[in-house]
Each structure stands twice: as structure tokens, then as C-alpha cells.
UniProtKB/TrEMBL annotation:
The keyword Thylakoid does not apply. Pfam families: Lactamase_B_3 (PF13483). This is UPF0173 metal-dependent hydrolase ACFOKC_01335. It comes from the Archaea. The lineage of its organism: Archaea, Methanobacteriati, Methanobacteriota, Stenosarchaea group, Halobacteria.
Length: 242
């Protein structure tokens, strides 16, 4: 599994022969990627705010996944019909990937954050094996927490049953968790690798990223924190098994 961070909450995830793009928003200072260069099979949307769906129209040939309210909006606003509306707790098989939609605590107005609701906000757990209650040591699993505050479902459900190897958590504060809450999330999730996201995009979420690293250390977590450069790719399988 290869993970590429394109700044903010935008991730490109390759699972076998399947390419997933999460929350396409390329108008951020951490990326130089031309969104037209990417050709994902599937686009996953955590919620409807503009800084997470701004570039959906670049991927009209892809299959979209989100809440029914959000995929319905894509049909009405952009004419995108190739979509799957799902909801919290559900798992869909997308090529070589299994994608489970999980809870995020946030607001979810369309585009500007006001007006029409896009249903519940979400995070996604992406794995190369189907999630079951039987632990699979050979599976590789990545958790994109979405825009969220700290909540105990991370510890009680995501960590316990979905067992992510790597997690991407928002750390910018103001609109989501800040460094200390994100560090607690990393500790609760018991993952081997943690990536910060959703920071330094706008003035309200500018932070000293070293604060997050220190807070993770302070929890006693054994997770390795990787602060990726924009457009940097991380090979998760290599990191876990070699």
C-alpha cells in the first residue's frame, strides 16, 4: 500500500492495482501536483466542506464514494452519476481495497459549511483484506480520520476491530483536533505509524508541527510520527514488514 500526501487532507492511496483519492483539494501550500495528472479509480469524500471537495469536477471519470446526501449533491451540481452512497459502519469493496466508513465528529454543510447538510461527516479505514473480528497479521490498513475532534470510537472500535497500521490525523486545531488531542488519538489507535494532516493551510490552522511530535511522545505511544513533505509517497508495506 502506497500513501501520498498532497497537503491538507488530500491523500492518494494505492492498494494493489486500485488507486483511491481522498478529499481532493489542491489549492493548498503543500502541493505542486497538477490535479489533472492524477487518474484515480475511486474518490472518497469525508464531508462536504469546500476544502475537501473543491476539485471533484477534475475527476468526472472516477467512481465517487460518500454519504448519500453528498453523492446526491455531486449528481445535482456536477452531473456525477457514478457513485456509491454509503453510511457510517458500512464497508464497500473497491477493486483491491476494502473501505469502511467510520465516525468523525465535525460539521458537514455543503461547500461553504452553511446551508444544505451532507449528512454525517466521516473517516475511512482502507485495507487490502476484508475486515472481520479475526485479526489478520498479513493485512495492511490505513485510517484517514477525516476532520474530527477526539472521540472514544477511535479507541473502542477503530483500534480494537479495524486495527490500523497507519493513521492520518488532523492536527491544525481550531476546526479539528489540535496537537495534544491528535496525540491522544494516536495513542488510542495503537498504530505503528502516524501522519499529521490538515495543518498550515490557512492562518487559523497554522501550528508548530514539532508540538504534535512532542505530544505523541508525551503519551508514551510507540507510534513513529512521519511528517511528510507535500506530494511525498510513503510505502506502508515496506515500513511494516522490512
Amino acid at each position: 500500500m502506497e500513501l501520498t500526501w498532497h497537503g491538507h487532507s488530500t491523500w492518494h492511496v494505492s492498494v494493489g492495482e486500485t488507486d483511491l483519492l481522498i478529499d481532493p483539494f489542491f489549492d493548498n501550500p503543500h502541493t505542486d501536483t497538477d490535479p489533472e495528472e492524477l487518474d484515480p479509480d475511486h474518490v472518497l469524500l469525508t464531508h462536504g466542506h469546500a476544502d475537501h471537495i473543491a476539485d471533484v469536477d477534475r475527476y468526472r471519470g472516477a467512481h465517487f464514494v460518500g454519504t448519500p446526501e453528498l453523492t446526491g449533491y455531486l449528481t445535482d451540481e456536477y452531473g456525477i452519476d457514478d457513485s456509491t452512497g454509503m453510511n457510517l459502519g458500512g464497508t464497500v469493496e473497491l477493486g483491491d481495497a476494502y473501505v469502511t466508513m467510520v465516525r468523525a465528529d465535525h460539521s458537514n454543510g455543503i461547500d461553504t459549511g452553511y446551508g444544505t447538510s451532507a449528512g454525517m461527516p466521516a473517516g475511512y479505514v482502507i485495507s487490502d483484506t476484508k475486515p472481520t473480528q479475526v485479526a489478520d497479521a498479513e493485512s495492511t490498513t490505513f485510517y484517514h480520520a477525516g476532520d474530527t475532534s477526539l472521540h472514544t470510537e477511535m479507541r473502542d472500535v477503530v483500534a480494537t476491530y479495524l486495527e490500523p497500521d497507519a493513521v492520518a490525523v488532523p492536527v491544525g486545531d481550531h476546526f479539528t483536533m489540535g496537537p495534544w488531542q491528535a496525540a491522544v488519538a494516536v495513542d488510542w489507535l495503537d498504530a505503528e505509524i502516524a501522519f499529521p494532516m490538515h495543518y498550515d493551510t490557512f492562518p487559523p490552522i497554522e501550528i508548530e508541527i514539532e508540538d504534535f511530535e512532542r505530544e505523541v511522545d508525551a503519551t508514551g505511544s510507540q507510534a513513529d510520527v512521519h511528517v511528510l513533505d507535500g506530494d511525498e509517497t510513503f510505502d506502508l508495506a515496506d515500513a511494516l514488514y522490512y
